[in-house]
Write a structure and sequence with these properties.
CATH topology of the largest domain: ABC transporter transmembrane region fold
Oligomer: single chain
CATH architecture of the largest domain: Up-down Bundle
Number of domains: 2
Shape: elongated
Radius of gyration: 36 Å
Number of strands: 10
CATH superfamily of the largest domain: ABC transporter type 1, transmembrane domain
Largest sheet: 6 strands, mixed
Strand order of the largest sheet: 6-7-8-3-9-10
Length: 625
């Protein structure tokens, strides 16, 4: 059985893992965390001060063991290392105390001082936590807010490459990993190095020879523990990737349950999820095996380290008389004070390696360039007075050309319809107007000015979009209608609902306009959801409308109601209509026929029929159906 100090040393041998060059490069990965800390310099200083005081009172309380033992064993206060100015001051103080109070009272006085110093140590320790813990929580909150804000500002094209489950994993699991592995040990980045430095300084004052011996021994043992934790980042990246895959499968399952059950593919999805979950389990086990190996290995090395220190220090006491027994015991007590912070410091570096994978995945999102510049200092587009113009517009995604040499003018108040085969570039062309994408060639102009010269917010404030899939939020009907205009009155909301042919079904709901529509509007039918999105667009009252196949997924009755609502909304507005059912755009001022990213035909309905080209074929195909 090991003595208490020896076992503590054994458990704490992780102190031997000293920062290497890889650790220093690792610190660069956490530059964002340090940037957050810069805003709290005052609190960092307070934490530094309280921690320093806590360390000093801890060392002083343990240092009182030397005069205590000296007085008990010899009855004399004097140590044979009086050349040390610190020890000399203590000796002088105790000598005066014995002369004036006696040995028994001096002994009691030493005990009271030790208790007082321990109380002060823990008081300042608590104050350091009181300052730092809210700061740690604030850093994690800031990281989460920055990540969410970046997701909101990223262009639409970014999300076509990323799986939703993977992004959710980065915002939950990876942020949690950073919180637990890095920010959770933030106090160790200041407290533990400071404790080690101050303690080593005191140990040098007691015995330079023993302290130099320890400093030589520690790095040698540290290499072994370091090799175990070095691979943690690689395995942590694998865990994060597999965790994102499981979330993606879960999201797809919840979104497609109707299809999954209809096609009897529960077994396929079950096997896919179980296989990914098993891979996640194996990756997590690999991390646990390496992390858990450090504990028994550190205990063995701890015994070796403590035994060597005992043997070397004992020789100094027994043979060379360079150190008295009481001073040696005091040295061991102070050396014990270095074990826990050194262990925690080593753990912090291990956690940082483990959390490096998470911070890399977060930084990948945060450092993604914004290809669509907000241009907040650009011109303000306060009104639309003339036209929207596409000049030699080209748009390519990676190496794929989506739009090529598009020239198109949309006059104010006109309705332009975009038709063509799937993948012809209709939605991409419409997305260039609200700058969901930026052109890779040519330019888009509003009222004769390049759209990039306007602030993005002012451009989008003059537009409303109704998509094929109604996008609603888990809130009341009134709040969904007033989404872009939260200060709207009840009368304005009702008026917009009436234009959208939605008022009649809304008042039949038990809660009326205050009825909750459920997640993504699941409590409403498809036609009802679409009419709410139209009411939302009407309430915003924009001069420009973009309608992306708004009726293509509806039944005949719902389509008629929605189409009537659309016709009401389009009055006196400039409209860009992406049409799937050509019957809905016969009265458009101009119909643009796209094929493979190019305009192949243009004109009104009658003109295009007369051309007997691609548009006529589309019309005839739908009439046959």
């Amino acid at each position: 059985m090991l003595p208490a100090a020896a076992k503590a040393s054994a458990d704490g041998v992780k102190l031997v893992t000293l920062p290497r060059l890889s650790d220093l490069s690792l610190m660069k990965q956490y530059s964002r965390i340090f940037q957050y800390l810069k805003a709290y310099k005052g609190k960092i200083f307070l934490y530094f001060l309280f921690t320093l005081l806590s360390i000093l009172f801890s060392i002083i309380s343990i240092g009182m063991l030397m005069p205590f033992m000296q007085l008990i064993f010899t009855g004399k206060p004097t140590l044979d290392i009086s050349s040390n100015p610190v020890i000399q001051s203590v000796n002088d103080f105790l000598t005066n105390s014995i002369n004036t109070r006696g040995k028994i009272k001096t002994l009691g006085y030493i005990c009271l001082l030790m208790i007082s110093f321990i109380i002060l140590k823990n008081l300042f320790l608590y104050l350091s936590y009181y300052v730092l813990n809210p700061l740690k929580n604030k850093i994690v909150n800031q990281l989460r807010e920055d990540l969410y804000d970046k997701v909101l500002r990223l262009p639409i094209g970014f999300f076509t490459e990323k799986r939703k489950g993977d992004l959710m994993s980065r915002m939950t699991n990876d942020v949690g990993e950073v919180e637990g592995s890095v920010v959770g040990t933030l106090e160790g980045w200041i407290r533990d190095p400071m404790t080690i430095i101050v303690t080593l300084t005191v140990l040098f004052l007691i015995s330079v020879q023993m302290t130099l011996f320890i400093l030589i021994l520690i790095p040698v043992l540290g290499l072994v523990i370091g090799r175990i934790t070095r691979s943690l980042k690689k395995h942590s990246q694998n865990v994060a990737h597999k965790y994102g895959e499981t979330l993606s499968i879960l999201d797809e399952t919840l979104s497609g349950l109707r299809v999954i059950k209809a096609f009897n593919i529960e077994k396929i999805l079950r096997l896919k999820f179980f296989r990914t979950n098993e891979e996640l389990l194996n990756a997590k086990n690999n991390i646990s095996f390496r992390r858990d190996l450090a504990s028994p290995l550190s205990e063995v090395m701890g015994v070796i380290l403590f035994t060597v220190v005992l043997y070397y220090g004992g020789r100094l006491v027994l043979q060379n008389q360079l150190l008295e027994a009481s001073a040696f015991l005091g040295y061991l007590g102070i050396f014990y004070n270095i074990i826990n912070p050194a262990k925690a410091l080593s753990t912090s570096f291990s956690n940082m390696r483990k959390g490096a994978a998470a911070i890399d995945r977060i930084e990948e999102v945060l450092n993604t360039p914004l290809t669509v510049d907000d241009n907040p200092n650009g011109r303000q587009l306060n009104s639309f007075t003339d036209k929207i113009e596409f000049r030699n517009v080209r748009f390519a995604y990676a190496d794929t050309v989506i739009l090529d040499t598009i020239n198109l003018t949309i006059q104010k108040g006109k309705t332009v319809a975009l038709v063509g085969s799937s993948g012809a570039g209709k939605s991409t062309l419409a997305d260039l107007v609200p700058r969901f994408h930026d052109v890779t060639g040519g330019e888009v102009l509003i009222d004769g000015i390049n759209i990039r010269d306007y602030s993005l917010h002012s451009v989008r404030s003059l537009m409303s979009i109704v998509t094929q899939e109604p996008i609603l939020f888990n809130d009341t009907i009134a709040n969904n209608i007033a989404l872009a205009y939260p200060e709207a009155s009840e009368e304005q909301i009702i008026a917009a609902a009436k234009i959208a042919n939605a008022h009649e079904f809304i008042v039949k709901k038990e809660g009326g306009y205050q009825s909750n529509i459920g997640d993504r509007g699941t409590k409403l039918s498809g036609g009802e959801r679409q009419r709410l999105t139209i009411a939302r667009a009407v309430l915003k009252n924009p001069p420009i409308l973009i309608l992306d196949e708004a009726t293509s997924s509806l039944d005949t009755e719902s389509e008629r109601l929605v189409q009537d609502a659309i016709n009401n909304m389009m009055q006196n507005r400039t409209s860009i209509v992406i049409a799937h059912r050509l019957s809905t755009i016969r009265h458009a001022d101009e119909i643009i026929v796209l094929q493979k990213g190019k305009i192949v035909e243009r004109g009104n309905h009658q003109q295009l029929l007369a051309q007997n080209g691609f548009y006529r074929k589309l019309v005839e195909m739908q009439e046959v159906k």
